[in-house]
């Protein structure tokens, strides 16, 4: 049993895949959060009726 446990602790197969999976998960959350923030900023730009940007698109 002791040798089985030592082999399990020393075994590193699959560790790289898990690390890449964690990196992808964190990047995905950052991208989704960034897209949400960008959408909110664009919505805020066009929501103000006195905005020159909103008036420029409304005039045409």
SSE inventory with pairings:
Layout: H1 2-10, H2 15-47, H3 52-59
Q: What is the subunit organization of this protein?
A: single chain
Number of helices: 3
N-to-C series of helices and strands: HHH
- Counting helices, strands and paired strands, the structural category is mainly alpha
Proportion in helices: over 70%
The number of strands is: 0
Which value, in Å, is the CA radius of gyration?
25 Å
Arithmetic mean pLDDT: 82
SS strand fraction: under 5%
Distance between the termini: 78 Å
Q: Which runs of at least 5 residues are low in confidence (pLDDT < 50)? A: none
- Which geometry do the CA atoms define? rod-shaped
Main sheet makeup: none
Transmembrane segments: 20-42
Keywords: Membrane, Transmembrane, Transmembrane helix
Protein name: Flp family type IVb pilin
Organism: Mesorhizobium shangrilense
Please summarize what this structure is.
By secondary structure, this protein is an all-alpha fold. 83% of the residues lie in helices and 0% in strands.
Describe this structure in words.
The protein has 60 residues and is mostly helical. The chain has helices at 2-10, 15-47, 52-59. It is rod-shaped, with a radius of gyration of 25 Å. The N and C termini lie far apart (78 Å). The mean pLDDT is 82.
